[in-house]
Design goal:
- By secondary structure, the protein is α+β, with helices and mostly antiparallel strands.
- It has helices at 66-181, 209-223; strands at 6-8, 11-13, 190-196, 200-202, 205-206, 232-238.
- It has a four-stranded antiparallel β-sheet, covered by helices on one side. Strands 1-2 form a two-stranded antiparallel ribbon.
- Strand 4 (200-202) and strand 5 (205-206) form a beta hairpin.
- Helix 1 (66-181) crosses helix 2 (209-223).
- It is rod-shaped and about 185 Å long.
- Mean pLDDT is 77; it is low at 23-52.
Amino acid sequence: IINDKVYIDGREVENGSSIELQNEIPDMESFDLEVPMPPMPPPSPSDFQMEFNIPDPVYAPRALSPSELEKLNKTLAKAQKEIAKQQKSLSKSQKRMLNDQMQELERIQKENIQIQRDAMRAQRDLLRAQEEARRSVEYARTEAFRAKMQAERDRERAALNREDALREGRIHEQLRRALLTDALITNPDKYNMHLSEKEMRVNGKIQDEAIKKKYLEYYKSISGRTLKNADSIQIEKNHTN
């Protein structure tokens, strides 16, 4: 008996029908211990109520009236709006989350790019500083070498000038003695002489050709040079005791 209804061998017994019961005792060996379960009764419409109390038409006991149908349509429309609202809200949330992730990714990319640019700038600055230092060292080394060579040339030039001065001094001294010997001058500290291939003057007086040739030969013998063309020698003394 289920819900005031009688079932025998899985079949419902209608009201007013007779039942014939057999009192036979079955053989124990053939006795089936598995008793068939009666079919489940049909579920009531309340078991399938939705959140908005929408009745399932399968289990509707009767057709809906126009007012009930209108109410059902409103309930369905309200449910659809609520679902759409939830879907829209979920979509906005997903978009907001995706947008936040994209912004964070862009921020990280920008930071990485800036870090790379700073590293490249620092590397360029380091290379530039190293190059400038190398050039400075090379320039200083070159300048030091140039100064050393210039000092060497200056010493050599000074030495040559000293030698030239000493040689010229010796030449002038020998010429002065010759002029005194030949009585061309009387004061060895105050006189002047000009000698060239063209002429010879002593204290402004032009000497004859023989004297000129004599002193040209003598100058060649003591200096090793020959006065030719525009070459000349000038001696001027103006010192008094």
